[in-house]
């Protein structure tokens, strides 16, 4: 596991849960129509974090399992979703039998373990004809204050894997997987600026892994950005804009 994930997520599970958005209603048809989930099927989420995506999987009626390597996050999701089977493990070593799941989903996580070993392991546990789904809530940096927020945190990123780098895409096309249609829908996290902007920023892995004094400096800069941005300043609730991007492949052979 990358050091930013191991250090940051281990100490910021509660902040992650508070600051991250849920997923839009359009995810339901994607899970049903594209990934084939429903009653009598089995779904595995890899890199499940604190369980932000689990409600969408549970709604399908499928049997749901969640694999998460960070103990603090796995403990939180297990407490919140006792109906889900919580599993310790990594994407490169999934403790399940061959061909044991109908769909495998990575929500906001695949960029952390995007290598051939992980993809081979995912194909191993998928049943023939099973589906791999990757989904991200991507911040909409066409909005000026969102771009300013990214400029604020970017110097701390180092070599932490990120969706925005596009490095994860280099694994595809991949042997044993046939691409399915991609979907993109607008989404927003609406709420208190302290929660949806400050907590969201502090939950970023490489920020969460910083010493407390450095995190406090970043929080102060984010609050200053809020105070000087007309569409944010003095508001009890704001809309943090995202685009939800959904990708899928079917296991062949």
How is this structure best summarized?
This protein is an alpha/beta fold and about 250 residues long.
Describe this structure as you would to a colleague:
With 253 residues, this protein is of the alpha/beta class. The protein is 36% helix and 25% strand. The chain has a seven-stranded mixed sheet. Strand 4 (101-107), helix 6 (116-125) and strand 5 form a beta-alpha-beta unit. The chain is globular. Mean pLDDT is 92; it is low at 4-8.
Task: Kindly provide the radius of gyration, computed on alpha-carbon positions and rounded to a whole number of angstroms.
Answer: 18 Å
DSSP strand (E) fraction? 15-25%
Q: How far do the termini sit from each other? A: 30 Å
Widest sheet, order of strands? 3-2-1-4-5-7-6
Which properties best describe this structure?
alpha/beta, 7-stranded mixed β-sheet, 253 residues
Map the helices and strands.
Layout: H1 3-11, H2 13-19, H3 27-34, E1 42-46, H4 54-59, E2 63-67, H5 71-80, E3 85-87, E4 101-107, H6 116-125, E5 126-139, H7 144-153, E6 177-191, H8 193-202, H9 205-208, H10 212-228, E7 238-251
Parallel strand pairs: 1-2, 1-4, 2-3, 4-5
Antiparallel strand pairs: 5-7, 6-7
Helix pairs in contact: 2-8, 7-10, 8-10
């Amino acid at each position: 596991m990358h050091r930013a994930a191991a250090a940051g997520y281990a100490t910021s599970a509660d902040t992650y849960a508070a600051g991250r958005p849920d997923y839009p209603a359009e995810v339901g048809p994607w899970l049903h129509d594209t990934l084939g989930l429903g009653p009598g099927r089995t779904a595995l989420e890899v890199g499940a974090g604190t369980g932000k995506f689990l409600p969408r999987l549970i709604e399908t009626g499928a049997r749901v399992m969640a694999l998460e390597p960070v103990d603090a996050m796995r403990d939180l999701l297990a407490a919140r979703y006792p109906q889900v089977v919580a599993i310790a493990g990594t994407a490169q070593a999934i403790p399940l039998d061959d061909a044991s799941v109908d769909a495998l989903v990575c929500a906001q996580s695949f960029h952390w373990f995007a290598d051939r070993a992980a993809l081979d392991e995912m194909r191993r546990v998928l049943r023939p004809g099973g589906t791999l789904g990757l989904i991200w809530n991507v911040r909409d940096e066409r909005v000026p204050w969102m771009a300013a927020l990214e400029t604020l945190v970017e110097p701390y990123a180092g070599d932490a894997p990120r969706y925005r780098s596009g490095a994860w895409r280099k694994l595809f096309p991949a042997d044993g997987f046939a691409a399915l249609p991609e979907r993109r829908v607008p989404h927003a996290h609406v709420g208190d600026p302290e929660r949806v902007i400050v907590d969201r920023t502090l939950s970023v892995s490489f920020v969460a892994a910083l010493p407390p004094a450095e995190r406090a400096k970043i929080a102060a800069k984010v609050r200053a950005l809020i105070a000087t941005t007309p569409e944010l300043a003095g508001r009890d609730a704001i809309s943090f804009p995202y685009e939800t991007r959904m990708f899928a492949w079917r296991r062949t052979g």
